[in-house]
Amino acid sequence: MPQKFDYIIIGSGLAGLQLAYRLSEDPFFQKLQIAIIDPSAKDTNDKTWCFWEKGDGKWDNLITKSWDHGKFISTETNLDLELKPYSYKMLKSIDFYNFVKSELKNTSNFHFILDEIIEIDEDNSTALGKNDTYIATHFFDSRIDSDYLEDSKSTKIFQHFKGLHIKTSASVFDESTFTMMDFRIKFPDSTSFTYVLPLSEDEALIEYTFFTPFLTEESIYNTYLHTYIKEILKIEEYEIIDTEKGVIPMTDYAFHKASSPKVTKIGTAGSWVKGSTGYSFKHTEKKIAQLVENIKSGKEPQGNILNVRSRWYDAIFLDVLNRNNELGEQLFTKFYTNNTPQEIFKYLDEETAILEELKIMISMYHSEFIRSFLRKLF
Ligand SMILES: Cc1cc2nc3c(=O)[nH]c(=O)nc-3n(C[C@H](O)[C@H](O)[C@H](O)COP(=O)(O)OP(=O)(O)OC[C@H]3O[C@@H](n4cnc5c(N)ncnc54)[C@H](O)[C@@H]3O)c2cc1C
User: Where are the domains of the chain?
Assistant: First the structure.
């Protein structure tokens, strides 16, 4: 007999666990039986999540480190970013997984199942897994439609990176300031930069990042990371404690269109990763709050979750980067030079009004935006 639930959450990653935790906090869902299905037990630290927010936040008990100051560095500028009232926070995924799993294990209505879902049969309200079959009235699904790479209409670039968590023999880092983007060491004709999260005076996570239409080999990241550490940070001796690698889709592909009355796509699969930045941690929290309100007021869970205007701006920006990848440094320099960090965060959080958005657009103006606007329009 298939196992029966009210809701099934497919995927216990960022979106799946944030959703499950949010449902567990609300008495409205107390009587529902909810399964969380993933082939992975999520017992490794597979990601370092960073995000900004104003003041105290929901995950503060899990934060490894936070910063009130940042830097933006390009070949022509070196900016100090005073973030207050925002702060930039870092959280290890393993701390998040362990916390949410342990909280949910204290409940009687959340059930973790190790299985890989192969398909959902909506007519029979059934999810077919490799080990078992599951029935539910609604599915929240974090599986990505892998065909998206074949879609010819959308713009697809990748945020891909490798990070080294290093420990130095001397005290070299200013742990009060992180580096959002440093363009001084750049892969030719590309949007590529270094991102530095100092954890103490002798420890930091240093990531070499690309926003490009192409992926690259491991040796390229290694070369650029070691060059940055040696030539920019002037560090000769260090030990690599850990590494991190990742690829995040930066796209205007409408993943969320795969949602249906019985299946709500969530996380990356619900278009919750911001196309122009690859950030999704804080967006996920906000989208889930909206999704829960929708359910409680009898609406479709995914209704009105995405900001159409912001998706449109992101699509234009991505098209510019896709066609003129070498422009990245210039565009980000204008973005950070002509706007305050508070204006930037508000815009990226999709909380700005049209006039504020217009100011940002003017501040970044390049004729290629007009071409991309027209390309995306027709
Ligand atoms: C290395 C890395 C670092 C990142 N850093 C940041 C950051 O600093 N800040 C930020 O905002 N964003 C960051 N992101 C982007 C984004 O936040 C993450 O990708 C985020 O994990 C997306 O959430 P998700 O739930 O969609 O996907 P995931 O967290 O990847 O979860 C998806 C889950 O679905 C499961 N799954 C897949 N297929 C099946 C199946 N068939 N059946 C059942 N389960 C399945 C997977 O095992 C996985 O556990 C980062 C991404 C990466 C890769």
Answer: 3-47+93-151+253-296, 156-250, 308-377
CATH of domain 156-250: 3.30.9.10
- Residue 146: per-residue pLDDT: 80
pLDDT 10s digits, 209-233? 999 999 999 999 999 999 999 999 9
Q: Band of the pLDDT at 2, cuts 50, 70, 90?
A: confident
**Which residue from 59, 142, 165, 205 has its CB within 8 A of the most atoms of ligand 1, so it is best to mutate?**
142
CA distance 175 to 203: 9
How many beta carbons lie within 10 A of that of residue 97, not counting itself?
A: 22
Contact 136, 8 (CB under 8 A): yes
CA separation for the pair 165, 244 (Å, rounded): 8
322 by Cβ neighbours in 10 Å (0-12 / 13-18 / 19+) ranks as middle
The residues, ordered by sequence, that sit 6+ positions from 171 with a Cβ below 8 Å of its Cβ are 201, 202
Three-class secondary structure of residue 175 per DSSP = coil
Q: Whose CA is nearest to atom 28 of ligand 1?
A: 13
CATH topology of domain 3-47+93-151+253-296: FAD/NAD(P)-binding domain (3.50.50)
Question: Residue 42 is which amino acid?
Answer: K
Q: Which of 125, 105, 100, 128 lies closest to 115, judged by CA?
A: 128
Instruction: Confirm or reject: Cβ of 51 under 6 Å from ligand 1.
Output: yes
The mean pLDDT of the chain is: 97
CA distance 52 to 87: 5
Task: Determine the residue type at 81.
Answer: L
Atom from ligand 1 closest to the CA of residue 18: 25
Per-residue pLDDT, averaged over 16-45, amounts to 98
Q: How far is CA 149 from the centre of its chain?
A: 19
Question: Ligand 1 within 6 A of 279 CB?
Answer: yes
